[in-house]
Amino acid sequence: MPFYQFNGIKPVVHPSAFVHPQATVTGNVTIGRDVYIGPGAAIRGDWGAIIIEDGCNVQENCTIHMFPGVTVLLQQGAHIGHGAIIHGATIGPNCLVGMNAVIMDEVVLEAECIVGALAFVKGGQRIPRRSLLAGNPARIIREVSDEMMAWKTEGTRLYQQLPQWCYETLQPCEPLNEAQTQQPLRVVDYQVFKKLS
């Protein structure tokens, strides 16, 4: 069971959201419509609140937490990549936080920002809309192009469809002892973004 009451407060999860059984959601956490929470994610609303708005995804092994009295906000369509850490920050609508990136306390990412994999965003910064950040410490490299934002939005749309697909098909099983012909995966026309200009 991935949900835990803390100090009398239970998480609130929209019925269309999917929280993997191996994730952990504790206390003052609100999860909206069509949200995907991957296995290994730790979302801990003990010292403050966590609000994950509609259409967000928090992928495998992410951590979301805060200092006492702080609310962490993931706004609509925020996309949090594998292993990222969000601590006491606000992630704006349709932002992407790359794999293993760290977003520190009191950071505000305005709408449609993209934070590169392994980036470290120092606390207290307000990052303007459509900024592309990378590095440790992270710095703004350039503005996010329309083409890059369209690619990000399409990737998030796949994650918004994933909860229903999980409800339809995900189930515990015993592994096969050897390879056999099985039903093929759903074909998705989505590629790695290679053009950075």
UniProtKB/TrEMBL annotation:
- Which CDD domains does the UniProt record give? LbH_paaY_like
**Per UniProt, what is one Pfam family of this protein?**
Hexapep
Q: Give the Gene3D superfamilies listed for this entry.
A: Hexapeptide repeat proteins
Q: Which SUPFAM superfamilies match?
A: Trimeric LpxA-like enzymes
- InterPro entries the record matches: Hexapep, Transf_Hexapept/Carb_Anhydrase, Trimer_LpxA-like_sf
Q: Which PANTHER family match?
A: DYNACTIN SUBUNIT P25, GAMMA CARBONIC ANHYDRASE-LIKE 1, MITOCHONDRIAL-RELATED
Q: What is the protein name stated in its UniProt record?
A: Phenylacetic acid degradation protein/carnitine operon protein CaiE
